[in-house]
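User: Can you predict the 3D structure for this chain?
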Amino acid sequence: MRRAIIIFTDLDGSLLDHDGYSYVGALPALEIIREQAIPLVFVTSKTRVEVERLHEEMGIQEPFIAENGGGIFFPRGYGGFRIPTAIEQGPFALILLGRPYAEIRRFLESVKEHYGLRGSGDMSLEEIVSITGLTTEKTRLAKEREFTEPFLMADQETLDTLREEARAAGLKITRGGRFFHLIGIEQDKGKAVKHALKIFQDNFGKELLSVGIGDRPNDFPMLSAVDIPVLMPHPDGRYEDFTLPKLLKAACPGSRGWNEAVTGILDALTETE
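Assistant: Here is the predicted structure, written as structure tokens:
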């Protein structure tokens, strides 16, 4: 193709089924992506170590964006890319966009009693397993936070007031599938995607065409940052109230809907090249 295609995707409720976290329904599209050497960039609230484990399971060696845009991780040496703003972190070149986890936890500790909050750091493995349906081992990985803190809130009527306090502390709140997330005020999935796209553009040296796939409000900035945004429905078939001029809507939730959306887009692009 004349253009380089890059796919950015949310995981839970998008590539992965909401219940069970399976990607089996997406296997045909994943095979096409692999055959065409299309970068598939996970953009997720999951932690770095969670994504590393999933990459290993799926046989993927691509950049990814962890913890709602807190960090962009490029495998070191990826495609011979030059990434001048990155710092070395283990096997990755890291572009740091988020705030340190310890700083976010300090804020949560200062307000959690007043607002009835329970952060991931306050919960046992067993409690998170019961909420998420993850295995105990995957829950351990989910608790290894670097840039964000997922939390539950007893009374959401005070959410706006909490947002104001968070903003005054240089933080903000977004919402994923099961938890609210306390994150740095300067980070979101859209900013991270734009930053990653610039890195791809600088290194590919040709026109890019970006696809973004997500289902929740924390995905809206990502969908707004790409050329072809795809909104996934929830398991009950409902879509979030979100519009964009070129927004596509997947026909069904989870991996099967993701598969249909991606194969449809790639087929259409092949026909127009």
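Residues 254-272 form the longest helix (19 residues). Residues 176 and 216 are 6 Å apart (CA to CA).
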